[in-house]
Each structure stands twice: as structure tokens, then as C-alpha cells.
Amino acid sequence: MAEHDPNAPALLDISDLAARPMRFMDLTDPRYSYMFGFVQADGHLAAGTGQKGRLSVEINVRDIAILREFQQLTPYNTSISERIRATNFSERHHSAIWTLCSLEARSLLNELGLP
Prior knowledge:
Shape: globular
Distance between the termini: 31 Å
Strand order of the largest sheet: 1-2-4-3
Helix content: 25-40%
Radius of gyration: 15 Å
Largest sheet: 4 strands, antiparallel
């Protein structure tokens, strides 16, 4: 698993999480606004059979800190996994995947306009 680089700058300031009551995907909160835009650009929302489905975001493993911050902002169970595969651009691409399966969270994202 990729290690966290302690010298990497924080992209989201999550130090005041306790200072403000959070509602998942409250787009008036800049942290969730950033997260929602990121998911729109790099995410994939898949509907499965019945109520199954998932939201996943796959990015280069060097940016795994972004996914860890998303995980901290999300009040639902999520996971982060890694994989190495060949792509059209590289024989060995190492990526990190953040996955969210909660139906409640996916429904809220649909209501906010994520197709």
C-alpha cells in the first residue's frame, strides 16, 4: 500500500470537522463542494441490480491522500484499494480506488445531479 507523504500539502482543511455540524454533501461546505466536483470529473456512479451499486473514484496512487480525506468526510463505510495494471499509456499504472456503496449516499448524489 502507498505510504502517506507527510510533506504533501493538505488539499482540504479537515481540522475543523468538530467545529461545524456536518451534513453529507452539503454543497455550501467548501470541502463537500470540492469533493462533489472531483466525483463529477473522476468518479463513476454505477447502479447494480436491486439496490446494489457503488460510487468509485480511481486516481493515481500518488494522490491517495485525496481519497483518504474523502473517506474522513464520508459518514458511510468506504474502502480504498490499490491496483497495478497495463493501460494504453503505460505498462504499469499504479492507482488507488475509493469505493462508496451506501444506497442513501448514492441516492443523495443522484438528487444533487450526479448521473
